[in-house]
Write a structure and sequence with these properties.
The protein is of the alpha+beta class and 535 residues long. The chain has four domains: 27-238; 246-338, Immunoglobulins (Immunoglobulin-like), CATH 2.60.40; 342-424, Immunoglobulin-like, CATH 2.60.40.10; 430-534, no CATH class. It contains ten helices and 27 strands. The chain has helices at residues 7-64, 71-74, 77-101, 130-138, 147-162, 181-185, 195-200, 205-234, 443-447, 493-500; strands at 114-117, 120-123, 246-252, 256-258, 262-271, 280-285, 288-289, 297-303, 308-320, 325-338, 341-346, 352-353, 358-365, 373-378, 383-386, 392-395, 406-412, 415-421, 423-424, 430-433, 439-441, 452-455, 466-475, 482-487, 507-516, 525-526, 530-534. Strands 21, 23, 24, 25, 26 and 27 form a six-stranded mixed beta sheet that branches. Strands 4-10-9-6-7 form a five-stranded mixed beta sheet, with no helix packed on it.
């Protein structure tokens, strides 16, 4: 591309490049937020896997004692857990090292590795690309890069997990822990990059963390696959129940209902198990037994009578074939019975004004917003429509008379309501010369004025009134009064001539000042006069 010779064209090109860079920065900020959301989700998922995996080993070992041939599966449990733990600790060490090296470099993760910007806490080195490239791809001084080692660790962990699966079952097992060689090897620059370079080179730290945390999640998910495989082999085939923790669960359709409605909830017994069950479960609410389905759930309902908070007690009894004991679990729940209600409020002033949009808030408790219908009736020639912000906007065309009102009508299933409002025209504006409503003014300042304005003081709406005209009278010392009729607010030729003659001692009268405001359909309204003494 040739370089333009004209300075103007060169400047245009430079501005285009700057704009392109700014757009790229904006996209980058959005992507960084996405990386943070993904990383947070992975961390939460990892915690959930930890909790789930922690309950299975003891269940496997307990169930394996029932038959000697099951013991070989129980013996593999500790190895599965150790493989997962070692890999997770290795990956977490890499993550913590890079965060620390782009933070305060004190050898640990703490507040010094984070900054707070506009109330948001983020990594100090979230955009650092040097640490990921140097540490994971190229290798720090005197050390090999860690990226290839990560790949090997993944392959080793996967191979180790396979040893805990019976040889004849390995072909049917698909582990989440996997290396994707196909994508980077088929990329256009496959001959120039390695797996580590493809994944980590010139990648910001915040974008790299979700990749590393994904590997941790994958190994924990693989751990869960293997543990469930072992569990199936010691418990599932014999149809024994494998449960170690229970909790009563209530899943109501609504926790707040209207008077006369039914409260309905699904009750179930939560537990950790991957094996088929021959357990016996009974459920009762307030002492009344419920019919329990094959999947361990039951439904209970009650009609809302009386307002306020209602409580109910759930009791579950469970026969556990592992311990051959019957255990009982209880829990109390509550719901609220209320009445439907409607609230209508003008969001600016408690009247509707002609010529401006009047925002109105409408809310109906206990009713879906899609079922609420709003209309207008009464005086004021009003109409109403839904605004973009979820509120409503009322437009009025004429004032209401004494004892007359405009009504906002709200209807929804089971309720109707009506709220009354008066309709007024916009209040009279104040006539001003500059910022002054009269008084003393120097002849220089007075001559500099361009006209009379109509000011709506303390009016909450965005409205503007205009001066329709006035009569200007100059009274000079020892001279006869002179007058000029002016149309509009800006001084015309006759008015300018009188204004230009201003001398100390003169008096000026702005009489019969009239203004027009939004919504005015009749003659211009008479507003205040102005009187100025020239000094």
């Amino acid at each position: 591309m040739s370089i333009p010779k004209e300075p103007r064209q060169i400047m245009i090109n430079i501005m285009y490049l700057v704009l392109t860079a700014l757009l790229a920065l904006n996209v980058s900020a959005e992507i960084f937020n996405a990386f943070k959301v993904v990383d947070k989700g992975l961390t939460q998922s990892s915690a959930a896997l930890d909790e789930s995996n922690a309950t299975l080993p003891e269940v496997i070992k307990t169930t394996a004692k029932k038959k000697p041939e099951f013991q070989k599966y129980a013996d593999r449990v500790d190895g599965v857990r150790q493989t997962s733990k070692e890999f997770s600790e290795y990956m977490n060490g890499i993550i913590e090292y890079m965060i620390d090296q782009t933070g305060d470099k004190d050898g640990s993760i703490g507040d010094g590795d984070y900054i707070t910007f506009q109330g948001v806490r983020k990594l100090r080195g979230e955009k650092d690309k040097d640490i990921t490239t140097r540490y994971l791809v190229n290798g720090e001084e005197g050390k090999d890069p860690v990226g290839p080692e990560i790949k090997q660790k993944i392959l080793d962990a996967k191979a180790k997990f396979l040893t805990f699966i019976d040889s004849n079952d390995r072909a049917s097992i698909a582990f989440p822990l996997e290396i994707d060689d196909k994508t980077w090897q088929t990329s256009k620059d496959k001959g120039k990059r390695s797996w580590a370079a493809y994944n980590f080179k010139q990648m910001p730290l915040q974008a790299t963390l979700p990749i590393l945390n994904k590997f941790i999640n994958d190994v924990k998910a693989t751990e869960a696959e293997v543990l469930n495989y072992l569990l199936t082999n010691v418990g599932g085939k014999s149809e024994d129940l494998v449960l170690d923790k229970f909790v009563v669960i209530s899943s109501p359709k609504k926790s707040y209902i209207l008077k006369g409605e039914k409260y309905e909830t699904e009750l179930s017994l939560g537990a950790t198990s991957s094996a088929k069950s021959n357990t016996k479960i009974t459920l009762a609410v307030n002492g009344t037994p419920l019919r329990v389905s094959d999947d361990g759930t039951a439904t209970w309902s009650a009609t809302g009578s009386g307002l306020g908070t209602k409580k109910y007690n759930v009791k579950a009894t469970v026969f556990n074939p592992v311990t051959e004991k019957t255990d009982t679990y209880t829990k109390e729940y509550e719901y609220t019975v209320g009445e439907s209600s409607v609230s209508v409020s003008a969001l600016k002033m408690n009247v509707f004004y002609i010529g401006v949009p009047n925002p109105v808030g409408v809310s109906a408790a206990g009713v879906n917003s899609n079922q609420v219908k709003v209309s207008m009736s009464g005086g004021g020639g009003c109409s109403i429509k839904k605004g973009s912000d979820g509120n409503f906007v009322v437009t009025a065309t004429r004032p209401t008379k004494k004892g007359e009102f405009a009504y906002v009508n709200v209807s929804a299933p089971g309720l109707t309501a009506k709220s009354e409002f008066r309709v007024k025209r916009i209040p009279d504006p104040e006539a001003k010369l500059g910022l002054n409503e009269g008084g003393t003014m120097s002849n220089g300042e007075f001559r500099a004025q361009r006209g009379v304005i109509a000011d709506l003081e303390n009016f909450d709406f965005d409205a503007k009134c205009n001066i329709a005209g006035f009569n200007l009278v100059r009274v000079a010392r020892r001279d006869d009064p002179e007058s000029a009729l002016n149309v509009g607010g800006t001084f015309g030729a006759d008015a300018k001539r009188l204004i230009s003659q201003a001398k100390p001692g003169d008096r000026y009268f702005f009489e019969n000042v009239k203004a027009k405001c939004p919504g005015d359909t009749g003659p211009a309204r008479k507003i205040n006069d102005l009187v100025f003494s020239i000094k």
